[in-house]
From TrEMBL:
This is Alpha/beta fold hydrolase. SUPFAM superfamilies: alpha/beta-Hydrolases. InterPro entries: AB_hydrolase_fold (IPR029058). Gene3D superfamilies: alpha/beta hydrolase. It comes from Phytohabitans kaempferiae. Keywords: Hydrolase.
Amino acid sequence: MRSAHRDGRLFGPYDDARWADQHVAEMMRTPAEVAVPALVSVRVWPEERRLLDCAQPVLCVHIKGGGMTDPTEFARGRDNVFVAQTVGSGHFVQIEVPDQVHATIERFLTIVG
């Protein structure tokens, strides 16, 4: 887990290293029988097809940097999918830059009304 943090697969360049180390240490306390299925479900999400077929408006908020959670490709060709990007945050945008996230949600709700 620590190597995933160090090489940028788990946390990004905007994440504070001490903060990330603390979260990695906390994650490592999770029993394997809980952690493994949870991590697998992130990589192989069975509900992805439902989301792809969703006709309702969808808001995806992410950080710069691409990676497996970058919604840009997911949104391509879907008029109902809105992609927003935060600035200066790491993995936990809702905690690190809540004002940006709240403003993004408010704008999304105004657009889709």
